[in-house]
Amino acid sequence: MKVLVTGASGLLGRGTALALASRGNEVTVLQRRPSGLAGTEAGAGPPIREVLGDIADAEVVRRAMTGQDGVVHLAARVGVVGTEEEFHRANVDGTLQVVAAARALHVPRLVHVSTPSVAHAGEPLVGAGADPADTVHTIGHYARSKARAEQLALGAADALGVVAIRPHLVWGPGDPQLVGRIVERARAGRLALIDDGAALIDTTYIDNAVDALVAALDHAEDDAVRGRAFVISNGQPRTVAELLARICRAAGLPAPHRRVPLPVAYAGGAAAERLWARLGRTDDPPMTSFLAEQLATAHWFDQREVRTALHWEPRVGLEEGFERLAAWFAAGAHA
Predict the structure, then answer these.
(1) What is the pTM of this model?
(2) What is the CATH number of the domain that holds 101?
(3) Fewer CB under 10 Å: which end of the chain, C or N?
(4) 80 contacts 270 by C-beta, under 8 angstroms
């Protein structure tokens, strides 16, 4: 099978491309900047091919997708910093081009990588499923643009075997987002718990997220999968306090003990967002109102249906994941 992976410069995209290549698939990757995968021989198939360009550029997308049997679409603008137009171009226009090219070139399978935030309006999620994407009540440019993108992708189910996968908080060795930011703040003495850190949150170890995307590609045309959205996670919710402590411990750092009330953190995050906008900064602020809310609100998901539909089970539990993370830090691979 020939597979296009968009957004392979990220941790999950890179892992997915390598996993597909290692089982003999002919893999092409598409993203703005070099992924470091061009020419990589990870399996029995040919070396990974790379196409560089803008995911919202119809010509670039069509060139990358010609001859493919499936697409795993991860390319997206993430974070909280940026204008509505910037998020729309990358996430909505980019997905439009992917769907249009898949239709025109008769590519039968499309895995659209989404996010649980497309269906989250601020309330706790306790044993939740994958509610429909909502462009009205979701919070922030990122979530709203991804919600619209998911709607566009699933709207092509009349012609394509398309499925939306929403990985929840992917982490692991080499992760610059969740792990990288937690460790950076802990080293700077700026990591704190919101309230008492008791909110239960589910996460997804990187290998399990990769396996789920590969399984989604294999089963995208199944009746139980086609045209649907699924949240995936390890299915092992832990308190925020425990997750932060374990990540810090893996990096050889003390767990956070300072506590900040949610109203204070929320107000501080909102102020930081306004300041960043005035200064024109492109990095994410240390706290945002959305992040404060996330760290104080339960988020865990019922995994029974998705595991049955995708014929997938997480193979790396949290304990093993933290052991691998500690080994990675001990080896100095992060330096």
Answers:
(1) 0.94
(2) 3.40.50.720
(3) C
(4) no
Residue 41 lies in domain: 2-168+204-233+301-315
In a domain, 96, yes or no: yes
For helices 94-104 and 140-154, the axis angle rounded to 10 degrees is 10
The DSSP 8-state label assigned to residue 132 in this structure reads P
Q: What is the pLDDT of residues 46-99, one digit of tens each?
A: 899 999 999 999 999 999 999 999 999 999 998 877 888 999 999 999 999 999
In a domain, 147, yes or no: yes
User: What are the helix (H) ranges across the chain?
Assistant: 11-22, 58-65, 84-87, 94-104, 140-154, 178-187, 206-219, 240-250, 262-279, 289-295, 304-310, 318-330
Q: Is 287 contained in some domain?
A: no
What is the spatial distance between Cα 218 and Cα 164, in angstroms, rounded to a whole number? 13
Structural domain count of the chain: 1
Residue pair 137/123 in contact (Cβ under 8 Å)? The answer is no
Q: What is the pLDDT of residues 148-185, one digit of tens each?
A: 999 999 999 999 999 999 999 999 999 988 898 889 98
Q: Known catalytic residues?
A: 142
126 lies in a domain? Answer: yes
Beta bridge partners of 73: 6, 112
Helices 11-22 and 206-219, packing angle to 10 deg: 60
Return the bridge partners of 275, or none. Answer: none
Q: How far apart are CA 76 and CA 193, in angstroms?
A: 29
Q: What does the alpha-carbon distance between residue 66 and residue 165 come to, in Å, rounded to a whole number?
A: 23
